[in-house]
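subagent[fold] <- orchestrator: predict structure for attached chain, return tokens only, no commentary.
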Amino acid sequence: MEGRDPFDRPDNSFNTLQGWTWIGCYGGYYLQCDRLHEAGFEHGFFTRRWQGRGPDELAGYISAGISVHRPQQVHSGVVLAADRANGEPWPEGDGLVSTAGSQSLWVCGADCTPVLIADPGTGHAAACHAGWRGVAAGILPTALNRLLERGARRKDLVIALGPAVSGQHYQVGEEVVEAIAASIPGDVDLPASGAVLPDEQPARHRLDIRAAARLQLQQAGVAGDQIAHCPLCTVSEPDLFHSWRRDQVKAVQWSGIVSQAVALESDASS
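subagent[fold] -> orchestrator:
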């Protein structure tokens, strides 16, 4: 697309995202989470500059000889087994958990949080589309439970929260805050956690959906240092990301992760 080059900045900020790395290939640039990479999981958070290329093509940029799995997203808390989402018509849901090795799991979004989860112990992976409705529906604890059923341990998981709308740009009503609060167990203070920020309008709030997702994961037993949080905001970076909040246009960017072959061994022995 036309416009300024987001990778050409005087402050070199796009090359110094702590914990995140831009990967260049012949098709363009996509973002990786260093923690997931160090755990050995091939993955990528793609940008609007890959417009027109879906998971079937994008999968080849992060790995080779892999199967492609994606849901028909409906802003739900439904997490599907990957082998149920391997072709059209894509089944409705907003999360996937691998059932074997070398499966690429894909979700898309345009302000909602793409969440990629890796379990180095079993090789299994999960991908979730987590907007406020998905978080309120408990999609992330559901994905964790699916991984635990496959032999994962909470302390081994590595989780990346990709580019999404920041709290500064996400105004919501009381009903959204109440739904998020109801989805997080325990006595939690959403404003103190940074998940809910003040707004100048009465009965309105600013929601940091990634902070809410992080809090929900922590309340589900995942330590904070196992969760990587991308600092990029989809609304603030129009050259990089589609944003429904900003443009009111139905367009998305994709994110995907590949399960490891060790998952096959794990499933065979169970």
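orchestrator: received. Logging for downstream: The first strand starts at residue 20 and ends at 25. The chain has a mean pLDDT of 91.
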